[in-house]
Amino acid sequence: MKVAVCTKQIPDPQAPQHLGEDLRLVRSGKALLDDADTYGVELGLRLTEASGGDVVVVSMVPGGETAGVRQALAMGAASAVVVSDERLEGADALTTARVLAAVVRRLGADLVITATESTDGYTGTVAGQIAGLLGWPALTFTRGLHLEGSRVTAERQVEDGVWVVEAELPCVVSVTAGIVDPRYPSFKGIMSAKSKPVEQLSLDDLGLGVQVRERVRSAREAEARSAGTVIEDDGTAEAAIVAFLESIKVL
Ligand SMILES: Cc1cc2nc3c(=O)[nH]c(=O)nc-3n(C[C@H](O)[C@H](O)[C@H](O)COP(=O)(O)OP(=O)(O)OC[C@H]3O[C@@H](n4cnc5c(N)ncnc54)[C@H](O)[C@@H]3O)c2cc1C
Known about the structure:
Layout: E1 2-6, E2 9-11, E3 31-33, H1 38-51, E4 54-60, H2 67-75, E5 79-83, H3 93-107, E6 111-115, H4 126-134, E7 138-148, E8 151-158, E9 161-168, E10 171-175, H5 187-193, E11 198-201, H6 203-206, H7 237-247
Parallel strand pairs: 1-4, 1-6, 4-5, 5-11, 6-10, 7-10
Antiparallel strand pairs: 2-3, 7-8, 8-9
Helix pairs in contact: 2-5, 3-4
Bound molecules: flavin-adenine dinucleotide (FAD).
């Protein structure tokens, strides 16, 4: 079984972020493996360790960056495919999904794993778009997964409960944080990641002629938080707090 795990390489979330003149996030410098994708890498490794096969990590990123995919290779993925092309500058989610779907077709993957949403863009749309482009089932918001032969059973986390859904391979699965505990790369894994194959592809290699059509019109700082509401306990505080938490759908 070939499992393609989509891994986004993002600017260090701990470092200060700033926007360029085009109002897009400045993506120069080292990119790291999005923490949200470590769960997908771990799931892919566990599935292939149990049923045979390989994990290939797939990433679209400016400048041929590989630092993030090397982290996934150090965890145990067998190889990586990185797509970079100047024509992808400012790529939106659908363009990204087109690129990732083309790589999946080229690999002949049986299963695609993504995170539910990335840490820096968080549209949460890429998994569904890849599935739509490939014509495969999309098992989204997956918090538990079982593979038996070619049958995938997923527990989907929804707002007020859990759905259990099934699909046959090939399919696309987006996973929530916590579906599995990602392993830490061992020293041996870090050393062997340096020599694992990383294929660099352009749009021409994929036979794609994409046109980036989205632009950012404006951007502004989020409003500062207001002081909040103080509830004095005159015996009704508990009910007031419960009512407030219900109004924001925490309860
Ligand atoms: C402002 C901005 C400018 C950008 N400019 C460029 C650019 O110039 N060149 C470029 O190559 N990319 C660029 N990107 C990255 C690319 O466009 C995003 O990956 C894409 O828009 C997906 O959006 P998202 O992160 O909201 O996806 P989501 O739907 O939130 O992502 C869900 C999951 O899909 C997978 N995924 C998403 N994106 C990728 C990816 N790129 N590679 C592998 N897996 C992925 C991950 O598993 C991710 O957790 C840019 C992104 C932003 C936000």
